[in-house]
Amino acid sequence: MSMIKDYPDFEKPREKALRYGIRTLSNRELLAILLRSGPRGQSVLQTADLLLRKADGMKGIGRMSIAELCDIKGISRVKALEMQACFEIVRRSYYEEAQSVDVISCPDHMIRWLRSELGSEMQEKFMAVYLDAGNRIISSRILFTGTINEAKVYPREVFREALLAGCVSLILVHNHPSGILTPSMADIELTERLIHAGKLMGVKVLDHLIITGSGWLSMAGESMFRQTEDGKDD
User: Which of 82, 131, 152, 192 has the fewest CB atoms within 10 Å, measured from its CB?
Assistant: First the structure.
């Protein structure tokens, strides 16, 4: 197998990026720039291919542990840490973008951040996003982690954090590792309990979002949320 040094300049990932722009690179070429070199007898592009196969594409790399990355020949602990740092920088940049807007009027930034935060998780996690009077994010917190099929959520924990944050309203979020966006009866019942608790605490629950690796669903937007809220008012 040819090594990177044997490639013509226009095919070397680093030189190609400098000449034509970083977006012209394939996934394997982007990873090759991060990895820099392969082990003896193996090109860095081969190492990148091994990583992509093990991770099932770029989407899986961000959730790999240091140990899982180091299982791949050619990836040291330092290289693994550098790769994790790249994914964390992206996640934090999405969060900062989401903090800068009214997330009800302009939800796209928040959804992009939430998908990077929860979309690839293999366990179900429940989060509350706490908002000010202008629907801007004050803070967020993952409050519960359960099995893939179950997450136990207690209203007192959700609203204790709401009071500490001094929020006016909040958005409930949890992921479905199964990839299925349809809310379960447990999801609907939980939403009903938290809407009711929020009324008692003076904190409005604006929505409940379900996040997967490939999509998202707003219970408010799908009218299930409104029916639940109206049902509690009767």
Answer: 152
Give residue-wise pLDDT tens across range 21-59.
999 999 999 999 999 988 888 889 999 999 999 998 888
Which H or E element spans position 114? helix 108-118
Would you state the structure tokens that stand for residue 45, as one six-digit string? Answer: 């592009």
Quick one: which of 82, 4, 71, 12 has its CA closest to 42? 4
Q: Cβ neighbours of residue 228 under 8 Å, at least 6 residues apart?
A: 188, 191, 192, 195, 219
Q: Are 129 and 170 in contact (CB under 8 A)?
A: yes
| CA distances, 170 to each of 35, 136, 137, 189, 211 (Å) | 41, 10, 9, 17, 16
**Which pTM value belongs to this model?**
0.81
Residue closest to 211 by CA, chosen among 87, 117, 93: 117
| Rounded distance between C-alpha atoms, residue 180 and residue 213, angstroms | 10
